[in-house]
Structures are given as C-alpha cells and as structure tokens.
Design brief:
single chain; Glyas_Bleomycin-R_OHBP_Dase; 116 residues; alpha+beta
Length: 116
C-alpha cells in the first residue's frame, strides 16, 4: 500500500507545518485552492502531505491517509462490502486525481486514484 495523499486538518496550519519543517526539513508550498487551501509537501515515494484548516464550522481535526488505488470505484465498493460507510463518493480534482472517503472502525479512510 502506498499513500497518495496524507491530509491533516487542523486549527493551526502554520504551527503544524512549522513542526514538520523543524523535525524533518520538509518544505511546504503555499495554499492550493483545489486541495482546500492545503499547504503541501512531497512525501518519500511520490505522495503528498497536505495541511489545511477546516472547510466548515463543524469539521473536526483529522489525519486521513488516502491510499493509492488503480480503480477507485472498485476499491470503494470493496470497502463498502467490508462494512465501510461511504462518506464522500469519488470526486475528481483536476490535475490531482480522484478521491473518495469512507468511514470504518471509528476512523476516516481515503482512496486516491491518480489521473491517467
């Protein structure tokens, strides 16, 4: 399994980015509107970590890995068959790929399919 995108939702984006910069030397870019104004940095292996503020008043802080998949529809169907609850159906983010979110075991889980 490989992480395509690691999403961190926090009330203090700058503090989280500063901590990662200090701990690992990673470099974050500016906010990317298509990713909810997340500031992103490259992960080893080719994925991204994105740190963003909540997009709505009731969005709680969360750390959500998005696992790379070849067929997001099939992967989401398999997760649902295994008892996962679809929280967000597949949605394309132009230039970045397609994501979906499901809930299982009290955690958020993401799937990510790269653009072909």
């Amino acid at each position: 399994m490989q992480i395509g995108y690691l999403e961190i939702v926090t009330g203090d984006v700058d503090a989280v980015c500063t901590a990662y910069i200090s701990a690992s030397g990673v470099q974050f870019g500016g906010p990317i509107p298509e990713l909810g104004n997340a500031r992103t940095a490259k992960l080893e292996g080719g994925g991204l970590v994105g740190v963003r503020a909540p997009l709505r008043e009731n969005e709680a802080p969360v750390v959500r890995p998005y696992w790379l998949v070849q067929d997001i529809e099939a992967a989401l169907a398999a997760a649902a068959e295994a008892g996962g609850e679809v929280a967000h159906p597949p949605m394309e983010i132009p230039g970045h790929g397609t994501f979906a979110i499901y809930l299982q075991g009290g955690n958020d889980h993401g799937l990510w399919q790269l653009d072909h």
